[in-house]
Design brief:
seven-stranded mixed β-sheet, 7 strands, homotetramer, 249 residues
Chain lengths: 249, 249, 249, 249
Amino acid sequence: MTVSPSALEELVTANRILAREGVVDSFGHVSIRHPDDAGRYLLSRARAPECIEADDVMQFTLEGAPIDAGGRKSYSERFIHGAIYQARPDVHAVVHNHSPSVIPFGITSTALRPVMHMCASMGTQVPTWDSRTNFGDTNLLVTNMEMARDLAAALGDRPVALMRGHGCVIAGTSLREVVFNAVYLELNAELQMKANALGPITFLSDGEVEAVLATRRSFTFERAWEYWCRRAGRPYDFRPMEGPLAGGH
Amino acid sequence: MTVSPSALEELVTANRILAREGVVDSFGHVSIRHPDDAGRYLLSRARAPECIEADDVMQFTLEGAPIDAGGRKSYSERFIHGAIYQARPDVHAVVHNHSPSVIPFGITSTALRPVMHMCASMGTQVPTWDSRTNFGDTNLLVTNMEMARDLAAALGDRPVALMRGHGCVIAGTSLREVVFNAVYLELNAELQMKANALGPITFLSDGEVEAVLATRRSFTFERAWEYWCRRAGRPYDFRPMEGPLAGGH
Amino acid sequence: MTVSPSALEELVTANRILAREGVVDSFGHVSIRHPDDAGRYLLSRARAPECIEADDVMQFTLEGAPIDAGGRKSYSERFIHGAIYQARPDVHAVVHNHSPSVIPFGITSTALRPVMHMCASMGTQVPTWDSRTNFGDTNLLVTNMEMARDLAAALGDRPVALMRGHGCVIAGTSLREVVFNAVYLELNAELQMKANALGPITFLSDGEVEAVLATRRSFTFERAWEYWCRRAGRPYDFRPMEGPLAGGH
Amino acid sequence: MTVSPSALEELVTANRILAREGVVDSFGHVSIRHPDDAGRYLLSRARAPECIEADDVMQFTLEGAPIDAGGRKSYSERFIHGAIYQARPDVHAVVHNHSPSVIPFGITSTALRPVMHMCASMGTQVPTWDSRTNFGDTNLLVTNMEMARDLAAALGDRPVALMRGHGCVIAGTSLREVVFNAVYLELNAELQMKANALGPITFLSDGEVEAVLATRRSFTFERAWEYWCRRAGRPYDFRPMEGPLAGGH
């Protein structure tokens, strides 16, 4: 089932933005659920996000089998995406990255929590998945469905899970939302580390986090997307969102 | 009442500088009081500062009603600007941002104080406004005049107020002054955090802060403005300032 | 014995990447063992890595004697490379640098240890060599074979050694591998410092480090190399690797 | 007495390098003693270093009187330069800046000391001058010869002095040397702050600092100068140095 060129280009843009904003380097990846087939997802071949072109985008079953590899090499960790799409019908886009300021929270006992309104999208509790708990000493890569399902279970119905000694996953209802949340997750981590050195932090209250999430609209993601497209040297097209997050402030 | 093209272009430049210098990202905004009508202010439509063009600039009453929207979407937090212009006849430009190094001081009990002469413009005491004190659990956005007046009251007659879990506001007598103060507020915050890790800090004395403010002239802002225009890829035009800050050192 | 233009260009690219990624500044250098003569190595004349061209590459005996100087000035610390090639037949590329986040670990007693899978290539133990131990008060430069052999002995059969008050050396089986490891050594150091400020760190276990090293393939280095070439403005050519690291994940 | 175009262009390049390397922003300045008249120095008109052109360079007596102002505005702090040239016949170039990582050491009691060989040029002891000690509450600017002489006395025969709540001065025998030392002073400050958070630091010994200074040659400055010219978009010309630092390693 073919995908529209604009959807492919938007996925390319997402990769370039994540690279430009320092949330991925040579590694990390972002996928979308197939717009017309909930049983598939779209993800680039194994390549650095900054280098990805539309022709690199492949289709996979939710079990991670390529539909149309055509000689292209897949990410060994693609299973992360499928397992989350299987467990979470509400999810339409997933980012996996090694976002640098987020890593320290995955390897210490300090909880990552929202310090400002822009970053409330991580929710009030961010779990940490440790591959070692159920799989022992591995190379930490999520290279099969069993590990990926274990990670998806740790994520539960939340938007973010940290991966100890590895990185994190961000799941959301649209591509622009997960990119937004990946960038602001990194920012929150950076700000929280700085504030932590100054003294005890007043985090957003649970009520405030809920209020941000209840009132956030796609227009917020659009404003950032236009800016990030410019920084990444990519064309910007306004894409009004459907569903509960439509509209804007 | 129309505004000169040069005033509009200067406001565009201010937006681009704030973006280039890392004081705003996709969010944050800067306004000027209408040069010929003290009851209005000029502010872009809701757009990332780096993307703003002269055609994006709108006029608002001090209550935040757009004069000439023409289908353009307003910043939901525009009320911040009007409330400050109402309370402070001396103020002719306002910045609201989420300046990253400033955030930690708004969420901890460590007071932001001047550590060097360039940053003395924050004054000897920087208050923190917490939306939760009078408005409870909200999404933290200042989306009406009631909240904005509460913030303006916290600001009082000072140049800077922090906003807990959100950002800050900077008010001044000219556009070039508030941009200058926004950039050096961020720098002071960064330097103070670094120094704080080394040991007790010798801050500027109150007398030193007063001496800096008493002797600072518009030429200081001009020197920085030329530099920032170059970095932002914007043309520079020297604009001699009138009033108490005119002249230079 | 002449060297292929592509090998020279790859060495130039390595220099440019190390500069672009902030692992070297005006100083630091990278060499390869001569592809056809295990008793020689290739290293630029004394020049900042960002400025190096193919014509700058010189050949040296393992004792550090230039084969074909032609008036070109050698790095005074070239001996580092030869001493490691002498002691380690498995090594085909060496980086020496002053990687900024790594320096603090060489001058304090905090051990640099892998905090994430990408950085496991430093191994489970990173020694620190102190020139002062055997050579007393010097300018810290490794300017003869005696000092270089002392450093190589400290390195032993490991991939990385820190140099107190100076920098570090990274030794590996290919150019792309040592560049990769130099960049991720810097990242690990940065992440470890950040995590250290948050509390006790869960490092990778020894078993995890071994698992990463046992399963890492040249494809990992290729993915990063393509990205770094793009950032450094250099052409990318895929170079399938031979030997134990060949293939990919 | 006219100055060669190449000397003027070198001074312009020094300004651009200091800006590009983040050691100055809109403020800070660098001068040279007049090559043919020890009683004069060359310094730009009051302008941001990144914007300076050859036509901006003015001549001053050591008392700070402009020789040929021609309507150009002088830096109000030019007196710093003259006072140091008066007190130090060995000095031929001076930088004054607000180098960001250096500021914290001027406002706390933590001494700035060399942590690596590249940064040994600050010497074994860096004094801090506090304008308040002899001049009370001022705007901290060194705007007359009396203050400048007080600062020069604090500097003594050393290469660097910090200025509390303000910045620092770096004095040396050549322009390329002071630019080099300004950049590596900033780096040392950054590295020392990072190391300080990890635990007690092993600094360079006094003997090591002396050994670095005794063996450093102008070639070291040349290697960096070429690199920084490239980064600053300025042409590079090799300038062999005369005197005790001539030659290279």
